[in-house]
Design goal:
Layout: H1 25-45, H2 50-64, H3 75-87
């Protein structure tokens, strides 16, 4: 039977009640960078200008992180990612 912790005497009734999520700030940032590059690539293929892509992605990040805290990238970071996509 699963236990809540190594020194806990209280058993967990179901193994799926454990939270296996590992908080990894670097992975969180990498994940968002990958998503922003994918969105930038899509918008580039759709014919958007780089400035329009930066504005759109920056607004999307501001909306996504409005209540949960600061976004992993500011406008300068988004601009750098978009520039890398458009330079390919």
């Amino acid at each position: 039977m699963l236990r809540l912790g190594p020194d806990s005497e209280t058993p967990m009734p179901f193994p799926w009640m454990r939270n296996p999520v590992v908080h990894d700030p670097a992975g969180f940032r990498q994940s968002h960078a990958r998503e922003l590059r994918q969105r930038a690539g899509l918008l580039r293929r759709l014919g958007y200008a780089p400035d329009a892509v930066v504005a759109r992605l920056t607004e999307n990040l501001a909306w996504e992180f409005d209540l949960s805290g600061p976004a992993p990238f500011d406008e300068a970071g988004v601009r750098a990612l978009v520039q890398a996509v458009f330079d390919r």
